[in-house]
Design a protein that fits this description.
Elements: H1 12-15, H2 22-40, E1 45-55, H3 63-73, H4 75-81, H5 84-88, H6 92-98, E2 99-103, E3 109-116, H7 119-139, H8 141-144, E4 146-152, H9 165-185, H10 189-203
Antiparallel strand pairs: 1-3, 1-4, 2-3
Helix pairs in contact: 2-9, 4-7
Length: 227
């Protein structure tokens, strides 16, 4: 009785240890690229200015909340058409790209957040847009019944909001590892099938042909002749 252990064949992906070198290489490349981006990119600072919409005399207080939502949607447009770019010292495109306005569903308040590569520049951009909203609301207060007033001016940021170089390297390494795993998982199935067939041919003896044994014809039984 043959007691030798039966050889098991591992999948082609596990028999090729060189394939798995893609994963650490992808992680290392992602970390290097992410860290380089975080180190070379200029830090970004954010400053936020707050304004509040108040009803005028003999106006419905509930209307202030609706007008706050409306002013929040068109804050950058009003700032561009007004004098915000002059007060902030930036172009209209810079205001559109780097200023965001957010409103609250419970209070008629608008927060105006500006990002820039310098803290003072971010403060001037946020306060410039807030000032443009206040001026515009004053011009149309007779028809809207509300006006925008300054609630809190922007304060100078002390720390950047952009990710640091170590954090960028960590994010880049995670992204590289994810891409490396995807590259290992989505390899063509045809290439895997060819690798399996090649391994099977190498494992079998060369020139061996298995053939079924053909039984020999049975000898005819001798029968005595009748006398």
């Amino acid at each position: 009785m043959n007691t030798s252990p039966r050889r098991t064949h591992l999948p082609a992906g596990l028999r090729a240890p060189g394939r798995w070198a893609v994963l650490p290489a992808a992680v290392l490349a992602g970390a290097v690229l992410g860290g380089g981006y975080g180190a070379l990119k200029a830090p970004q600072y954010a400053a936020t200015s707050y304004v509040i919409v108040v009803p005028a005399e003999k106006s419905d207080p509930a209307a202030a909340l609706g007008f706050a939502q409306a002013y929040g949607r068109v804050a950058t447009d009003i700032a561009v058409t007004g004098d915000a770019q002059v007060w902030a010292g930036v172009t209209a495109d810079t205001l559109r790209r780097n200023v965001q306005a957010a409103t609250s569903p419970d209070a008629p308040m608008i927060s105006i957040t500006a990002t820039a590569d310098k803290p003072a520049k971010a403060v001037s951009m946020a306060d410039g847009v807030a000032r443009a909203l206040i001026l515009n609301s004053t011009h149309v207060a007779g028809s809207t019944g509300v006006k925008v007033v300054q609630f809190s001016r922007a304060t100078k940021p002390v720390a950047p909001v952009s990710p640091s170089a170590p954090l960028s390297a960590l994010v880049g390494g995670c992204a590289g590892g994810l891409l490396g795993c995807l590259a290992l998982l989505v390899r063509p199935k045809r290439a895997a099938a060819r690798g399996e067939a090649r391994h099977s041919r190498q494992a079998s003896p060369s020139g061996a042909v298995s053939s079924a044994a053909v039984p020999a014809p049975a000898a005819a039984a001798h029968q005595p002749e009748a006398v």
